[in-house]
Amino acid sequence: MNLSVLLSVYNKENPSYLAKSLDSIFSQTLFPTEVILVKDGPLYNELDSVIDLYVSRYPNLKVFSLLTNQGLGKALNEGLKHCSYDIVARMDTDDIAKPDRFEKQLAVFEKYSDIDVVGAWIDEFEDDILEVKSVRKLPELPDDIRQFAKRRNPINHPVVMFRKSAVLAAGGYQHFPLFEDYYLWIRMLMNGAKFYNIQESLLYFRFSPEMFKRRGGWRYVISELHFLQKMRQMHFISFSEFMQNLFVRFSIRLIPNSLRAIIYTKLIR
């Protein structure tokens, strides 16, 4: 099966991380047909130099530029326009794909023609992929994934592979600060798309203690409230589910960062 890989890079990212991410894409057991990289606004010289180097090495790496920083959702929508094939693998420019990631995910699409989204678990690390801090595990089957989505994001976005046609049928990525991917999955589920999660880790996800700070505070609380309200308006969750979510999520957002880190890495993985 032909495969497009979709990435977006912006000015604050690390050139070394980008190089490692691209290396992991181009050393897969199943080589991607094309790789679409969107520059989300102007980049500084070191990032451009890395991109130029890989373009010279790999003719199937295609780069498209936005004049100004638009944010991840809009950048990915722009990239989707340039994906030539229906099967698209997402990748973030600071993560590292395991060598057989594409092969294993494509095997699911080949076996099950009715599956639209294939996710997997991810290994979370800080500096060294040999020192995995936690594993983000998700349910496997479509019905379980739909139920899980009422409480938490059911797909690890950096390791997802999907049918472009199913994403576009649900309206593509839409602007929803902090929740662009989760919002997409809900709309796809409501549109009848079927999801599957491979029950093993296929990607090393880079994170830092700063991530837990970003997932707390009143700014995050307000964004999450708007998202829960949207889920309720869409009739994806009931009023009681809305209230349960409200209590659990807000409690986590407003506790000290050190406690939130323990909850994320130890209790809800």
From TrEMBL:
<dbReference type="InterPro" id="IPR050834">
    <property type="entry name" value="Glycosyltransf_2"/>
</dbReference>
<keyword id="KW-0328">Glycosyltransferase</keyword>
<feature type="domain" description="Glycosyltransferase 2-like">
    <location>
        <begin position="4"/>
        <end position="139"/>
    </location>
</feature>
<protein>
    <submittedName>
        <fullName>Amylovoran biosynthesis glycosyltransferase AmsE</fullName>
    </submittedName>
</protein>
<keyword id="KW-0808">Transferase</keyword>
<dbReference type="InterPro" id="IPR001173">
    <property type="entry name" value="Glyco_trans_2-like"/>
</dbReference>
<dbReference type="Pfam" id="PF00535">
    <property type="entry name" value="Glycos_transf_2"/>
</dbReference>
<dbReference type="InterPro" id="IPR029044">
    <property type="entry name" value="Nucleotide-diphossugar_trans"/>
</dbReference>
<comment type="similarity">
    <text>Belongs to the glycosyltransferase 2 family.</text>
</comment>
